[in-house]
Design a protein that fits this description.
Arc Repressor Mutant, subunit A, mainly alpha, two-stranded antiparallel ribbon, globular, 2 domains
Length: 142
C-alpha cells in the first residue's frame, strides 16, 4: 500500500523545519495506525513534486526516520515502514482522537487560536494526575 503524498503537509511559516514536520507526520501516522509495518512511503520525487520542497529536505527526513528505526530503505524499490517501528500503534487512538477532535472544535468555537490550544494541551500534559479523592475535594464534595 502506497501512502498518498497528500498526507504530507508542510507549514512553511512554522518554526519547525520542513524535514522535521515530515518526520513528525510519519511518526504520528504510525502511532495512529494509519501507517502499518510494510506500508510504502511515497518516493522522494513524489514528495518533492507534491509539496514543492527541496529534494535534500525529503532525503534528510527519510534518513532521520531510517536512523530512528521507523523506516527501511530498499535500494531501487522504495522506503517502507519498518517491521517493528519503535513507536507502537495505539489501539485506543481512534476513540481518543475523536474525543480530542470534539474538544478542539469546541475550543475553536470559543475563539482560541491553534497556538492557544497547543498551550492548553501542554499545560494539561504537565499537570499532575489528580486522584478521584482530589477531584471530589476540589469539586466541593468531601
Amino acid at each position: 500500500m502506497v501512502l498518498e503524498v497528500t498526507v504530507f503537509r508542510v507549514d512553511a511559516g512554522s518554526d519547525v523545519p520542513i524535514y522535521r514536520q515530515l518526520v513528525q507526520q510519519v511518526r504520528r501516522d504510525v502511532m495512529l495506525g494509519r501507517l502499518r509495518p510494510g506500508d510504502q512511503l511515497p518516493s522522494v520525487k513524489e514528495v518533492v513534486n507534491a509539496l514543492s520542497v527541496n529534494p535534500n529536505t525529503v532525503v534528510k527526513a527519510f534518513s532521520e526516520l531510517e536512523h530512528q528505526g521507523m523506516v527501511v530503505r530498499r535500494q531501487g524499490v522504495g522506503t517502507f515502514v519498518a517491521a517493528a517501528p519503535p513507536v507502537a500503534s495505539l489501539g485506543v487512538a481512534p476513540r481518543l482522537l475523536g474525543s480530542l477532535a470534539r474538544w478542539v472544535d469546541r475550543a475553536r468555537q470559543e475563539g482560541l487560536s491553534a497556538e492557544q490550544i497547543r498551550m492548553l494541551l501542554e499545560v494539561a500534559l504537565d499537570e499532575p494526575v489528580a486522584s478521584d479523592d482530589d477531584r471530589q475535594v476540589a469539586g466541593g464534595a468531601a
